[in-house]
Task: structure prediction
Amino acid sequence: MDLLLELKDLQFASPVFLLAGIFLAGLLVTVKLLQMKKRQKGDIGLAELKDIYKKQIRKARTASYMRMFFLALAIVGIGATTAGPYSQNVGEISRTRTIENVRTIMVALDVSGSMKLKSPSGEQTVFEMSRDQAVDFLESQENIRAGFIFYSDWSLIWRRPTLETKDLARELAYMNINRPMRGPYGEFGGSQLSIFSGGTHTPRALYAAGQVFYDIYVEEGLRDGAVILLTDLQDRLGEVEEAINSLTKNGIRVYVLANSRNEKTIDMFRQRMAKNPRVWVFNASLGADMSEAYERISELESSPLIIKEVVPAEKNDLRLQTGLAVFGFLFIFAIAGEMLLRRARGGG
Result:
């Protein structure tokens, strides 16, 4: 039964050899039939022979036809074996890909000049509030690998996705766009980040995140992940929308944590993205709002990861099977055919 299912999807690496085998088999049958026809014309009439001789002649002809048939099949089989037969099945299935139940999240944090403004609470700058909330989120997670992007006029992939989220959170806690009076200077420390701070080009951060997820797809075959975008929604909203849609078309979820002081801007952008089921827009102007948004993200990202994927094609080599068939045809041709001829000649 399995062989029959494989034959349903039978293909040949070099079909020209199969065609050559069919041609030679057809030529053999044609020549043999012409030879038999000539012999029949030279035979004496069956009416003049006794019944026993009539039967022997019929058996001899039957045996010749059978030998010719199996020899032709063997020739076709040799051609098929040389042609490299194989079957290839491709099916779509749904299965759970877990990587130890880990989700991949890229956090993109705006470090432009507007983030130096005081938050509505007045205790911290908008950057410090956003940074601290991101630190709390990373420290609370057990089932994600996270990466981090800083962006202003340009984007910087500060950390690629890592399972060491608590180490990432500790490093992030020292980052600031204001020059620190004291504190450690890492490979990308606070003073350097303050120099990086400038204008805003949010789409570049989103495309940088998309490149990270593309690399993961190439390496692991996993088309899944999420981007947390911390932004003030001040400019390039059309380009931001286009970049977000580009991500979601490739299976990436996008959470927009908007810290704009203009609630109408947030509501307007939420309406623009309402038709996209992979996008969530949160009003995160206050620390409490941002904390609630992160709690909701944790709930959404902790659900079981179920994705649809195409199972890689399995190529089954069938040369062994066709070779065995050729051996069987030649065996019948050599042994069984000879037995039939002996009986036809009255040898037993």
